[in-house]
Every structure is written in C-alpha cells, then in structure tokens.
Amino acid sequence: MLERWMVPLIAGLFGLAIGSFLNVCTLRWPEEESVISPPSRCPRCGQPVRWHDNVPVLSWLILRGRCRSCGQAISLQYPLVELATGMIWAGVFAYHGPGAESVRGSLFLTILFGIALSDARFYIIPDEFSVGGAALGIALSFMPAGIDWGTALRGALVGYGALWAVAVGGTWAVKRFFPGRLEAAGVDQAMGGGDVKMMMMVGAFVGVWGVALTVFLGSVLALVVFGPLASLSKRLIPLGVFLAAAGAVTYVWGDAMLAWYMGSVVGIPS
Q1: pTM of the full predicted structure?
Q2: How much is the average pLDDT of 121-132?
Q3: Which of 16, 43, 105, 267 is the most exposed place for a label (fewest CB within 10 A)?
Q4: CA proximity to 174, closest of 189, 161, 163
C-alpha cells in the first residue's frame, strides 16, 4: 500500500517524462514532422542525444544547458516544460488521489499546455492536440469518473459548432467594418480553424457549460492581456494560448464559478 505522499511523487516523475515528450510534440507537430524519427539530436552538430543526456530536468542541469558534443546552448524551454508538466501531474494526483479522474485531468491539462506552447510559438494548433485530444476526451468519458459520454459528445459538438459560427461571423464583421485588416495581417479569416477544433477537444473534457465558460474567460484574457499589444504591433492574438489557460481554470474551478453565477447573479440556487 502506497503512502499518500508517494502518489503525487510518482505521478510527478511520470509527468516529467510526459513533459519531455511534450517538448518534442510542440516543436515537431506544428512543422508536420514525426515525433518518432529522427530521434532527438542537437540542431547545431546533429549528434543524437544519448539516453543518459535525456533524463528530464536532471540532464539539462548536469550539462549546464549545453550540448555534450559541441557546447551549443540548449533552450531553457526543455527543463521548464518538463518541470511544469511534472507539477501538473503531481498536483492533479495530490488533489484527486489515485484514480481515473486524476488520469483524465492530467491528460487534459497536459494537452492544453501543449496547445499553448504551439500556438504561442508557431500560431498553429496541431490536429494531434485538438482532434486527437477530442477523441481521447470522449474515450475517457467511459471511465468511472468525470463527465459521461453523452455530455462529452455534446460538449465536443457544441464546442466545434459555436467556435465555427464565431469564426465565420467574425470574419464577415472584420471584412465588413475593417476592410483590409485581415490582408494586412497575412490571413484570410478572423479565427483559425485550430481554435475551432481546439474547443471541440475542450468540450469533450468539460461539457457544454465548460465550453461557454472557457470561451468567455479566454476572450476576456486575450483582450485584457494581449489586446493592447496587438493593436500597437498589428500582430494577431494567439487565441489558443488564452483559451488553453481558460480551459485549465474551467477544469479546476469551473463548477464553483458556475454555481456562484447561478446562485448570486441569476438567483437559482445550486
């Protein structure tokens, strides 16, 4: 019988390994490259990374952030992503304890983290995260935890449909009232298809109400945090980053926020 403190520790160590693979996914999937072949190698000298130099976080510290073969600096992103993913898994298992919901929650938050990293760097949300994540969310809904499969399926459909409608309507509005703005930004639509498919994935994990809360919180975060910068720099808002943050908030505090809203604002006790 494992001691209670050992469960999040083991989960955190497993999360470190997942974080190492997540680094590869966020860098290769947006470039439509395989995450299996070629194996990890130094981008400068091309030497493959040896197994003992690929231990999450520890190898980066031992090598002092440099390639063993040529001394090329290794991005700080690698240990930070590994550490953050490890903390996600440890935190979820510490809160829920060992069980299906911990697995479901850890996978959902890890996918959101990967989406945020990919969208921030490449302005791309790979289908492996969005479509693959939606399929995973529906599959996990058959486990004895979280939402049931009907709620997951409805959430996925509403998540996709609602964002598709917003994307179509937003594109029409921008072209109608701000002609030339999309062309100046080098795009032909106000919202990318990746954001639409991402919300399908979010809906599969948190349901219809979770989709509504995620879209609301993500839009507010994007406008408050990135909106002023975007207006000055003319850069597009990487909406997936903010939707991912909002999705994480919805998963952790969504039920409490909805209960407060329904009770305090609408006047319907939960």
Answers
A1: 0.91
A2: 96
A3: 267
A4: 189
What one-character-per-residue DSSP string does 130-188 give?
A: HHHHHHHHHHHTTSSSSS-HHHHHHHHHHHHHHHHHHHHHHHHHHHHHSTTHHHHHT-S
Token pair, residue 208, equals: 């219809």
Which residue is it, tokens 């302005």?
123
Task: For residues 7 and 11, give the distance between their C-alpha atoms in angstroms, rounded to a whole number.
Answer: 6
Q: How far apart are CA 213 and CA 206, in angstroms?
A: 10
Compute the distance between CA of residue 15 and CA of residue 21 in angstroms, rounded to an integer.
10
User: What whole-number distance in Å separates Cα of residue 159 and Cα of residue 98?
Assistant: 29
Within a 13 Å sphere around the CA of 210, how many CA atoms are in the beta-carbon half? 30
| Residue 253 confidence (pLDDT) above 60 | yes
How far apart are the C-alpha atoms of 139 and 143, rounded to whole Å? 8
| Residue 175: pLDDT band with limits 50, 70, 90 | low
What does the pLDDT look like over 48-80, one tens digit per residue? 888 888 899 999 999 999 988 888 898 999 999
Q: CA nearest 88: which of 14, 140, 21, 27?
A: 14
Contact 210, 203 (CB under 8 A): yes
DSSP letter, residue 190: S
SS3 content of the chain, % helix, strand, coil (to 5): 70, 0, 25
User: What is the distance in angstroms between the CA of the first residue and the CA of the last residue of the chain?
Assistant: 38
Residue-level pLDDT at 108:
98
Percent of the chain beyond pLDDT 90? 61
Q: Name the residue with higher pLDDT: 53 or 109.
A: 109
